[in-house]
Amino acid sequence: MTGPFDIRSTIDSRRSVRSYKMIPVDDEIMESIKNFAKSMPVPFEHNVEIRFFNAEPTRTLYTVMKSPPDNVAFIAETDVVSISKAGFIGEFLILFAQSKGISTCWYGYYKLSELERLMPHLQPTDQLKEANMGYGCSKGETTGRRAICISPLGYYEDKGLRLMDRITKATFSFKRKEIKELLVDSNDYEKLSDDILYALDLGRKAPSAANSQMWRFGFEDKYKTITVAMPVGYKHFKWEYPNLDIGICVCHVWLGLIDKGYNPAVTVSEDSGRAVWRISI
Ligand SMILES: Cc1cc2nc3c(=O)[nH]c(=O)nc-3n(C[C@H](O)[C@H](O)[C@H](O)COP(=O)(O)O)c2cc1C
Fold it and tell me: Which residues contact 166 (CB under 8 A, 6 or more apart)?
């Protein structure tokens, strides 16, 4: 199997972008992104929906920045496995867009009533309606099928960045934990092949809410299977769906192995309230 884009350079060049030119994505590029979304080669069954939508150039949706015209929502059930799959699928789309020169930013915190206005029939629960924002600030459990995260799709506007985002971009966004810190058992490090280390290196570069990097890597089957999950009992102070971030990381690890010529099998199941992924070569 070969990747649908240059895997390493795409992952290395992706950054969350929080300032956009108020122009639509070029027609041909938008078409290629939509086609990719329709026929995405995903290594598992799922019913995550990728829905493209337009927004007006106001701060209503993202609150901290103006929406560019083109945006995308990732819609799934709210059980941990479906949420995690939404992370994998969303990141695959985001990386494809990146490979076409399109900037993105995962948003878990956005104004739900505005998304509802732009995309009717989202059917948020009363509880979310009350909170009036996306998942990042709602409290407690939410159920049912809904937009888990959204992202703008557009062109970076250098001059538009807020001071806070400039600081974040320069200091925070590039920082990642070393592979050794991310292993369930750090003694495993010496036993890992170059190919596995390559895939884990791409995995650790994945984006996560507030750059939390909550993924941990374990091994089974004489290092032929990589497990990816958050620690049992992990809770983020604000972000309710860290299993989504785990799926994002798995997408990077999977692509890393594809880049090394493997066609890995990928499974995910729920264990101790977490999504636990297995990627086998
Ligand atoms: C699931 C998820 C939700 C996120 N939600 C927000 C958000 O609501 N607002 C925001 O500004 N950034 C958000 N981010 C972006 C992260 O802050 C960013 O990915 C992280 O700091 C790493 O930086 P990088 O993406 O530039 O590598 C989110 C990222 C993920 C993966």
Answer: none
